[in-house]
Amino acid sequence: LTHGFKAIRGDYDKAGDPGAITHFQALSAALSATVGLGNIGGVALAISLGGPGAVFWMWVVGFLGMGIKLTEVSLAMLHRDTSDPENPNGGPMWVVDKNIEGKSKPIFFFGKLIGGVFCIALICSTITAGNLFQTWNVAELTESYFNVPGYVTGLILAILVGAVIIGGIKRIGAVASKLVPFMLILYILACFVVLAFHFDQIPAMLALIVTSAFSSLESSNAFIGGTAGYAFMYGMQRALFSNEAGLGTEALAHGAAKTTEPVREGLVAMLGPFIDTILVCSITAFVILVSGAWTSDLNGVSMTAQAFSTELGLTGTVVLSICVITFSVTTMFGQSYYGAKCTGFLFGTKSKTY
């Protein structure tokens, strides 16, 4: 962790290294794609289905995910395509392609075939979970809170996201490096205010998380009581969906970092699951638990919204709305870039934009 923080601070930045963006911008671009509605609504869903014990297993998987992220990004950096030093290409498809192609002539095409399968799957994901899901949630929120028609929200988001992603990873990294820290600090401060109101309940809440991770828990929740099995299943699902460890997606963003040290960028990437799961998902869960919102019949973003509005009133509603919109927009930045890099692998990387 210490080496990763030194890297994003700029201690090892060198202008002549191959790459397009700094370590900090690469981490911001990667976090922009992962820190999203899953950290707000997904955590609430995990607790509603798996009980407070799901948070414990989120921690475990998030911690192990740091090691997975270190490995997958280091591999991507080792095997990235740097034929254009100012626009390198990294990711699982390049790892597979470079390791298989040329090793055995009769099967050289398997590298591109397997890489192509990954790209097609990721393109489908970026269109649906990466963009459509985010847009739909923002449209629902703006329509319910501000009476703005959904199609108007969709049009505005399309223009905003398009204006950023058309500039490629350099513009995405520049915008993300400003928006991501802002949205994280705002959200974390709001959560800390709520926790400050219930400071005396925090020890009991932590004990509840640990004990319910291994034993049955009776819940007034309209869904299922948080048995240990459900706690593990939903906690694991939420952590993996949130930080994408093992999916290989963040390697596409980190692959553009300026560095000649592959493992150094891997250590920077390791900060992703720490910030995303260990920090952001945890404080969301804490707010839901101390506010008592987890015992309601709500789930997803509605549960988190109730927790904030109950504790902070109108201020909580406004802050959460800003965070939801910002989280969603930045997620679309990163996911759109992933789709573009996959398209480049499938149809050629001649595009000047990406």
Task: Please bin the fraction of helical residues.
Answer: over 70%
Number of helices: 13
Low-confidence stretches: 217-226
Number of DSSP strand runs: 0
General description of the model:
This protein is mostly helical and 354 residues long. Helix content is 74%, strand content 0%. The chain contains 13 helices and no strands. It has helices at 2-9, 23-34, 37-50, 53-78, 92-100, 109-146, 150-165, 168-197, 202-212, 228-243, 250-254, 262-291, 301-347. It is globular. The protein starts with a helix and ends in a 7-residue tail after the last helix. 51% of the residues are buried.
Can you give me a brief rundown of this structure?
With 354 residues, the protein is an all-alpha fold.
Structural key phrases:
about 350 residues; mainly alpha; about 0% strand; single chain
What is the element layout, followed by pairings?
Blueprint: H1 2-9, H2 23-34, H3 37-50, H4 53-78, H5 92-100, H6 109-146, H7 150-165, H8 168-197, H9 202-212, H10 228-243, H11 250-254, H12 262-291, H13 301-347
Helix pairs in contact: 1-12, 2-8, 2-12, 2-13, 3-10, 3-12, 3-13, 4-9, 4-10, 4-12, 5-6, 6-7, 6-13, 7-13, 8-12, 8-13, 12-13
